[in-house]
Amino acid sequence: MKKLIAGNWKMNGSLESNAALVKALLSHSDDWTCDVALCVPAPYLSQLQNLSKASPLMFGAQDVSTHDSGAFTGEVSAGMLKDFECRYAIVGHSERRQLHLESDALVAAKAQKALASGITPVVCVGETLHEREAGLTEEVVKRQLAAVIHLNGHCISEIVLAYEPVWAIGTGKTATPEQAQHVHAVLRAQLRAASAHADRVQIVYGGSMNAANAAQLLAQPDIDGGLVGGASLKAADFLSIIAAAH
Ligand code: PGA
User: Best mutation site among 40, 208, 238 for ligand 1, i.e. most ligand atoms within 8 A of its Cβ?
Assistant: First the structure.
């Protein structure tokens, strides 16, 4: 399956730095053999729409509302993302689960809204350090994915799934390739039980993926790409990860 390397810029960027970063990435786009996407802050969607025209670069948002329109100050709907030709929307990132108290059910509803608008949700699941140490990793990620399957069963093969151990995000601590592969295999089995098309779901790994560790992670049979935070802000690092994803 074709791999996906998706950058998650989080709340970083400026018109000027974004233009320079995208230009540097696109100068190597002839060499890309995997899918490449950038998930950017909502105000920069229009900039990405322009910068990525006629290129293989795809882009997306970092969240989406569960509502279509109305009195929801600060929210952005799937229809609005579609207006900007967004291909992806991250849902359930651990920063939103933790800082904005998003529940499994809410994340599942966000995935549903994205799918209904033809946007691919990048559904994030992952355990905290406390949960890993308590031996709860499988239980936690299966519970998080089960909520999304429950609400989106018939089109579950249309999602991208991101395994992001919370303890590895932004910490410089990466899951070992074996640890990540183990969880990816668990998630793959859960998807297979839900859909005959589970094998076309890209299951990507996120959490301190960088130029040095990407190749080993991406060599695992059930790791179909990466969701890359910090290293997606530096063109050379992100390009190295893209090059490792063949
Ligand atoms: P990181 O972030 O690569 O900086 O650890 C990954 C993510 O949060 O998606």
Answer: 208
